[in-house]
């Protein structure tokens, strides 16, 4: 059953973060329940679950999760406001995970186990690595939406999306280092980034930009470390 849960979580990760263009999100926020992309988005989730699970005997579970996904997204679009957008994003994701785990347990509690097979181990690895790429970048973007980042980075030109790719690479490196037992390399990576990113931001006028970079770095490394520890605990104790 652990394998089934991991497949459903992977489907959710792909559907919510990799196969949902930004213009879908903006259209849903504008038109709410009248947006056609809301229903296309749920249909994509259903298709992903059927493809990844690849077992029609789980059709009631998949349809149930799809329905709950529609209800949760619909409530979020209806209730959230500009000031509560960040809060509702995290509540929305939490409710999706709860609905997947809860409905699976309710419908298949007699087959529920915590055995982690080789296939489940590989799937857990794929989920963790995938989460540290685009999904984490989106999570950080939501967190930083509190501040006017474009204003802070004005006159500080850089390559397009360079910061995003740097963040993804550093998180993947942290994950690899921790999973392979090389914690000292994480410290080296933090030191190296500090030298390159903070060395030219010592002027007092750059304080806000320095704080922005520092917060972003700590959050990025923190998420990578927590994900790595979660994966290690999963494969050792489950």
Characterise this structure:
The chain has 238 residues and is an all-alpha fold. It folds into two domains: 2-114, no CATH class; 149-237, no CATH class. It contains eleven helices and no strands. It has helices spanning 2-18, 22-31, 36-53, 59-79, 85-108, 118-131, 134-144, 149-152, 162-179, 183-198, 207-237. Helix 9 runs antiparallel to helix 10. It is flat and about 55 Å long. It starts with a helix and ends with a helix. The model has no long low-confidence stretch (mean pLDDT 87).
Could you outline the blueprint of secondary structure elements for this entry?
Blueprint: H1 2-18, H2 22-31, H3 36-53, H4 59-79, H5 85-108, H6 118-131, H7 134-144, H8 149-152, H9 162-179, H10 183-198, H11 207-237
Task: Give a brief description.
The protein has 238 residues and is an all-alpha fold. Helices cover 77% and strands 0% of the residues.
Distance N to C terminus: 12 Å
SSE order = HHHHHHHHHHH
The counted number of beta strands is 0
Number of helices: 11
What class do helices, strands and sheet pairing give?
Answer: mainly alpha
| Mean of all residue-level pLDDT scores | 87
Give the overall shape.
flat
* Domain module tally: 2
Radius of gyration, whole Å: 20 Å
Helix content: over 70%
**Which residues sit in consecutive blocks of at least 5 with pLDDT less than 50?**
none
Report the β-strand fraction as a percent range.
under 5%
Largest sheet: none
């Amino acid at each position: 059953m652990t394998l089934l849960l991991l497949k459903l979580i992977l489907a959710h990760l792909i559907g919510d973060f990799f196969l949902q263009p930004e213009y879908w999100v903006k259209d849903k926020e504008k038109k709410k329940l009248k947006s056609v992309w809301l229903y296309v988005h749920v249909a994509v989730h259903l298709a992903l679950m059927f493809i990844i699970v690849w077992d029609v005997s789980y059709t009631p579970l998949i349809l149930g999760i799809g329905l709950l996904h529609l209800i949760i997204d619909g409530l979020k679009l209806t209730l959230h406001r500009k000031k509560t957008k960040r809060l509702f994003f995290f509540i929305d994701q939490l409710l999706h995970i709860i609905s997947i785990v809860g409905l699976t347990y309710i419908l298949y509690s007699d087959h529920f186990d915590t055995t982690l097979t080789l296939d489940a181990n590989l799937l857990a690895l794929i989920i963790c690595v995938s989460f540290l790429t685009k999904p984490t970048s989106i999570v950080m973007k939501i967190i930083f939406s509190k501040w006017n980042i474009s204003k802070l980075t004005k006159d500080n030109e850089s390559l397009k999306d360079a910061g995003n790719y740097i963040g993804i690479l550093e998180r993947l490196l942290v994950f690899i280092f921790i999973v392979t037992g090389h914690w000292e390399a994480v410290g080296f990576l933090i030191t190296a980034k500090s030298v390159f990113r903070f060395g030219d931001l010592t002027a007092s006028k750059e304080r806000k930009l320095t704080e922005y970079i520092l917060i972003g770095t700590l959050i990025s490394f923190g998420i990578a470390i927590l994900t790595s520890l979660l994966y290690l605990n999963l494969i050792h104790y489950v």
